[in-house]
Specification:
Blueprint: H1 2-15, E1 28-38, E2 44-47, E3 51-55, E4 61-66, E5 71-76, E6 79-87, E7 90-98, E8 103-105, E9 108-112
Length: 113
């Protein structure tokens, strides 16, 4: 009987059942806009469609999307990430910290001359 209990517990650990595995761990959300700012004085800011992507701690792209109305949103496990945006041959980035259950509003601002 004890062997069966140990076997079932081992199987549960391997499958991530009830262990708080990454698949069931609470996640956080980051949402924002791709913004371009600058230009001739006095300068201005505007939103523009492009691509937004998230790079994780191992320098790998873990999520990517093409924006609609310059808006992006990603659902991510807690941790530190770099958020990139690219549009019209220009690129911007910013660091973000995701916490479980949090909604983080983080625009990516790209400076234009």
């Amino acid at each position: 009987m004890r062997r069966i209990a140990v076997l079932l517990w081992s199987l549960a650990v391997l499958l991530g059942v009830g262990t708080g595995s990454a698949a069931t761990a609470p996640r956080g959300r980051v949402t924002g806009l791709i913004r371009l700012c600058g230009g001739p004085a006095p300068g201005r800011c505007f939103s523009q469609d492009g691509s937004a992507y998230v790079v994780g701690p191992r320098h790998r792209v873990i999520a990517k999307q093409h924006t609609r109305h310059a808006r992006f949103t990603f659902l991510l496990p807690p941790g530190r990430y770099t958020l990139f945006a690219q549009t019209g041959g220009t690129r911007g980035q910013r660091s973000i910290l995701i916490k479980a259950g949090q909604v983080l509003h983080a625009n990516v601002v790209i400076a234009i001359p």
